[in-house]
C-alpha cells in the first residue's frame, strides 16, 4: 500500500499544560488555521480540559483525545478515568504508553496492553507510544526494544481492532529535548515497526496502520520527517501548544 492511502494524523499531546479556559482559547486559535487540512487533526488534552475542548471544537475538523485511560470499567481505582467516561463525553482518541507514563508512573507493557484492549473494546482509538531510551540505542538494541513493545502492547489485539490503532514511535531521548531523530532514523524505526506488524498480522494489515513520529517535531523539521515513506504523521508535544507552529506541522502533513 502506498503512503498516500494511509490516514496522515497530526496529534497534539498537551501533557500537563493548559487550564480549561486556556484550552478553549488555544483551540479557538488553532481551528481556523487547520480548517482546510488534508490530514486528521487531533488534540490530546488533560482530563479536565476534555469537556471544554470538545465544546470548542464542535463543527471543526479537530478531534479530541485523552492522555490516558484505565482498563477497568469502574471500581476502586482512585484517581483513574475509565474508557466509558471518556466515550460518553465524546472523546475519540487516547494516548497510551507514553514514555512519561512509563518513566514516572510505572506504566509497563502489560498495563499498556490492558489499557489498549479496554480502549478498543470501548470504541476509542488508541495512540500507542513506543520508543527506546538513549542508552538502549547506544547499546544497539533499539530493534529488540521496539519489537518487544509492539508485541506486548498489542498482545491479543485482533486484526480487525488493529484498524483503529495508531502507533507513535517516540525515541525517549528526543522527547522535549530539542534533539530530533534524523528523518532517516525515524524512517528506519517506523519501517521496522511496520515489518513487525506484518509479522504479527500480515502485510496488508501492517500497510494500513498509521505510524507517527514524535520527539521534538516542529514547524522546522516536520516537512523532512513527514516526507519519509513510513512516517505517516506526528505526535507533537511542545510545538502543539503554539497555534501557528502546530498549524504549520498540519500543513506539512497535508501535502
Ligand atoms: P515533544 O513531545 O514534541 O515536546 O518532544 C512529544 C511527545 O512527548 O509526544
Q: Look at the structure and give the mean pLDDT.
A: 97
Order of helices and strands: EHEHEHEHHEHHHEHHEHEH
Our measurement of the CA-to-CA distance between the termini, rounded to an integer number of angstroms, reads: 18 Å
Task: Show unreliable segments.
Answer: none
Ligands present: 2-phosphoglycolic acid
Biggest sheet overview = 8 strands, parallel, barrel
Count of separate DSSP helical elements: 12
Broad structural category: alpha/beta
Give the strand tally: 8
Tell me, what's the shape? globular
Write up what this structure looks like:
- The protein has helices at residues 20-34, 50-56, 83-89, 99-104, 109-122, 134-138, 142-153, 159-162, 183-200, 203-207, 222-226, 243-253, and strands at 9-13, 40-44, 62-66, 93-96, 125-130, 166-169, 211-214, 233-236.
- By secondary structure, it is of the alpha/beta class.
- Helix 1 packs parallel to helix 2.
- The structure holds 2-phosphoglycolic acid.
Q: Quick summary of this structure?
A:
The protein has helices spanning 20-34, 50-56, 83-89, 99-104, 109-122, 134-138, 142-153, 159-162, 183-200, 203-207, 222-226, 243-253; strands at residues 9-13, 40-44, 62-66, 93-96, 125-130, 166-169, 211-214, 233-236.
Amino acid at each position: 500500500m502506498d503512503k498516500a492511502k494511509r490516514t496522515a494524523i497530526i496529534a497534539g499531546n498537551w501533557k500537563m499544560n493548559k487550564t480549561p479556559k486556556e484550552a478553549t482559547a488555544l483551540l479557538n486559535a488553532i481551528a481556523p488555521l487547520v480548517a482546510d487540512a488534508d490530514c486528521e487533526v487531533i488534540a490530546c488534552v488533560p482530563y479536565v480540559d476534555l469537556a471544554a475542548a470538545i465544546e470548542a471544537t464542535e463543527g471543526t475538523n479537530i478531534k479530541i483525545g485523552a492522555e490516558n485511560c484505565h482498563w477497568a470499567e469502574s471500581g476502586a481505582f482512585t484517581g483513574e478515568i475509565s474508557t466509558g467516561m471518556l466515550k460518553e463525553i465524546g472523546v475519540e482518541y487516547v494516548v497510551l504508553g507514553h514514555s512519561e507514563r512509563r518513566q514516572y508512573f510505572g506504566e509497563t507493557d502489560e498495563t499498556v496492553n490492558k489499557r489498549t484492549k479496554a480502549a478498543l473494546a470501548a470504541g476509542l482509538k488508541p495512540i500507542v507510544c513506543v520508543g527506546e531510551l538513549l542508552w538502549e540505542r547506544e547499546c544497539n538494541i533499539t530493534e529488540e526494544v521496539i519489537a518487544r513493545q509492539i508485541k506486548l502492547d498489542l498482545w491479543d489485539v485482533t486484526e480487525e481492532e488493529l484498524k483503529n490503532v495508531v502507533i507513535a514511535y517516540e525515541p525517549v531521548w528526543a522527547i522535549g529535548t530539542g534533539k530530533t531523530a534524523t528523518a532517516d532514523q525515524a524512517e528506519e524505526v517506523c519501517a521496522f515497526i511496520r515489518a513487525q506488524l506484518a509479522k504479527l498480522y500480515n502485510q496488508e494489515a501492517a500497510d494500513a496502520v498509521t505510524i507517527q513520529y514524535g520527539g521534538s517535531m516542529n514547524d522546522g523539521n516536520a516537512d523532512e520527517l513527514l516526507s519519509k515513506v513510513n512516517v505517516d504523521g506526528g505526535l507533537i508535544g511542545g510545538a502543539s501548544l503554539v497555534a501557528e507552529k502546530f498549524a504549520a506541522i498540519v500543513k506539512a502533513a497535508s501535502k
